[in-house]
Amino acid sequence: VSSSVTAEAAQAALSARAPATRGAGSSASDEDALQLLIDESATFHLFVDPARGQSVGFRSAARVVGFEAVAPIRRLELRLNPVASGMTGFNSIGDEVGEVSQRWTFVDHDYVAAPARRPPPVPLDRTQSQRFVIEEATFRLVTGDAFRVFGTGRTFPLPGGRLILGAVGNVIEGAGIFARALGNITLAGDLSDDGVFRGHVMVRFVDFARTLRSNAVPALSGTGVYEEGVTYLTWIAQKSHDADQVNTFSLTRQGVPRGLNIPVRLTRVWTDFSITNGFRATPLRTGEVIGREIGFGKEARPRTPEMGTAQTPFQFEGVSRYTFFNGAGQAVGTLTANVLEGRSIRLAIPGAPDAPGLRFGYFGPIVTGTGCFKGIDGMLYGTAGSVFAPPPAIHVISNLYVARLHDPDGRWRAEVAD
Amino acid sequence: MALDLNAETYPYEIVQHLLDQTATFTLYAKPLPRLFETATILRDPDDFFGINGGYGLSLGCSLHAFESTTLVRDVRTVSVDQTVGCPVGEFRSVLRFGPAVGDDIRRWAPATEPPVMIYDRWRSQACVLTDATLSFGYGEQFRAYGIGRTYPVFAGTGPRLLLGAVGNLVDGDGLFRNHEASFSLCGTLSAELGFEGVIVCRVVDSRGDFASELEPTDLESTTLPSDDDTFIVLRGQKRDRTVKTTFGPKPGPNLDSLVTPSEMRLVEYLAPCDGRPPLSSMRVGRLVARMDADVRFNISAPPGTALTPTPFTTAEVYDFVDPCGRSVARIDAGVTDGIAFGLRFPSAPGQPGVRFAGFGPVTGGTGAFTGVQGLLTVNSVIGIAPHALSLTHVLHLVDPAGRWCGVGTDT
């Protein structure tokens, strides 16, 4: 649990160190301190409800090239039950908390999007995977708080005519409690024939000032409402000090680095929010270790000094395999997923100005699964904060994952939260 | 002065005979069950770059004898009987992905680390095949290197990912020792990271090491091919020595166009048997289609080698004919990625030839093939002056509705 007292102490401890000892080559206690600071975030889940949403396709040469849509947003609680013979998630969609208005435009795969740039549109083709630009997504809560997002994403056609999508975005403007807040979103869902998005928006605001969080958030559990045909599973990846958590370079036969091998431990996680008495998210709370991730990651485009900003984020990609264990330590299933689109932005960390902080979002399809995930089909995505430098230097991370699974038979759905 | 492709360095019939001194194996590949659960694309388990399904696929297939017989009935009806026989060997390879767009043969680099690109099954990606092995048991095997490309298609109920690839023998054991050979494959990459499709292996066999006196016999079906695919296997050659190859308009700088008409016929090859050396014989059957091919390559380039094959592309029109020889349906296809190697004939010094293999998409069809999607692979040897042909083509038709599969479904 990230308590404010320990976070303050961590900040003070890091501030007291000489710059040369911060970041690269740091000690385990430095890493613990940075972990507490990285966890100073308000992360929460929204469900975009298509029931009363409206969407209008806009056209170019008589063909739909994008959508403008308004839809209610609801509180969404995601819980992962303890791993037993398999894995199940309890999903609960709560009351309406506001609305989101969006404008999406479909673009060529190679188009470089930027907030101030009007994208050249291409026609929507539901049989192809296409990129799109979220020119604007404005989330307005009934409390009067709001934030506006710019981002990019991709569609993925599936059997049966389904079109799912993933996207990442950065908060470019906030109002009310979100004014001047740094945040990013990742979303995943379905796009209907008439352009209505249904799905999940994961929101993560940096909250070093602890203005967005409270322990006193009323519980939502038990509405009994979930997204039909879909189950969400969530967990978090964080580094431990175990020997099997050390990052290494992946090298070609010629000894040239291809990218990084990154092992991480996986634990259960809880996060929620409420708008009763104003917006407040819960602090991040983690549970028992449930698995291990082994991953390979690399820059999708070489870094340049100009990158790493909200205008021009770093771009990354990678593959990971997640192995989940039950309480007896037996593996119950694995899933493999590829990050096809990842964006990270530099983050200054109070008290650790030299620490190479990042906040990021990503998404990609689940490639395959075994055990309890045999035959799995869906999207893996997340938001995260980290302090990262190449090995043997420091890597601290809080990577909140959600797997959005195609689950018409309720194979991964829990009827109650355990 | 332009090269006279039709000149006869040796008599046309002699060159045709020499070209047919190849051992051809048409094989049906089925993914080895559960391989994907443990497979990696690197041997080092601590290097997570090797995770199967990330930056590459570790393919493993059982190979089965395969026979395909096409019957063209009329403008609406083409049926293809496919028989998959007993397992006769294995195919293994690591597929490493390259750029999503662009060419090219330049990625042919057996001695260097393949590119680092992530698997994206919704986009067409170039790939290289490393550590490829075709084995027939009892030490009869060869190792190969190749290139390929994935093709996402949307057919019937949803998206699928096709794979076309070709490769060249690097070294062989047993009968394959000291031979030149090419392989081509076309089929589907499954959600469980397996490959199912048809692999054609052709071995240059001027010594007759693979030659069998046995005639091909009807194959006994022991397992079923994919419900969603139809594979047409065709043998191509010129009707006779009077059929001339001509130069077409130059398609670009340092490129020439050869326009070659040929006849595509049914063909049966002796099926390899598990536990016995893979021997070969061939029986050519009736005419199924007339084909016009426009082959584009640099005719002045030095003969391709295992390290530097000559690139080529083609555009093919298959004009399918009914038993009376009337044109009833058509398929358009083309090789987008082709590799060609110089070919010599020990018994005919000075006679140039080319061994080549390539793949590309089916681009259209008419009649019974209206709306067709799929792939073409070619795996062939030809002479140059005279321009005699010994072609093996496979048309992979995506066929979830079974339009062409079986016994004459009325389309």
Could you provide a short overview of the structure?
The complex is a heterodimer of chains A (418) and B (411). By secondary structure, chain A is mostly beta strands.
Can you characterise this structure?
By secondary structure, chain A is mostly beta strands. Helix content of chain A is 6%, strand content 54%. Chain A has 2 helices and 20 strands. Chain A has an 8-stranded antiparallel beta barrel. In chain A, strands 10-12-15-16-17-18-19-20 form an 8-stranded antiparallel barrel. A two-stranded antiparallel ribbon of chain A has the order 13-14. In chain A, helix 1 (4-16) crosses helix 2 (28-38). The longest helix of chain A is centred in the N-terminal third of the chain and has 13 residues, at 4-16. Chain B is mostly beta strands. Helices cover 3% and strands 51% of the residues of chain B. Chain B is built from 2 helices and 18 strands. Chain B has helices at 12-19, 35-38, and strands at residues 22-31, 56-74, 77-97, 126-135, 141-155, 158-173, 181-189, 195-204, 229-237, 246-247, 256-269, 282-297, 310-321, 327-333, 337-343, 353-366, 374-383, 389-398. In chain B, the strands form 2 sheets. In chain B, strands 9, 10, 11, 12, 13, 14, 15, 16, 17 and 18 form a 10-stranded antiparallel β-sheet that branches. In chain B, strands 1-2-3-4-5-6-7-8 form an 8-stranded antiparallel β-barrel. In chain B, strand 2 (56-74) and strand 3 form a beta hairpin. The longest helix of chain B has 8 residues, at 12-19. The radius of gyration of chain B is 20 Å and the shape is globular. In chain B, 51% of the residues are buried. The mean pLDDT of chain B is 93. Chain A binds chain B through residues 109-110, 127-129, 154, 156-161, 248, 250-254, 256, 258-259, 261-263, 294-296, 298, 317-321, 334, 336, 338-340, 365, 367-368, 370, 377, and chain B through 36-37, 46-49, 51-55, 100-101, 113, 116, 118-123, 152, 154, 157-159, 191-193.
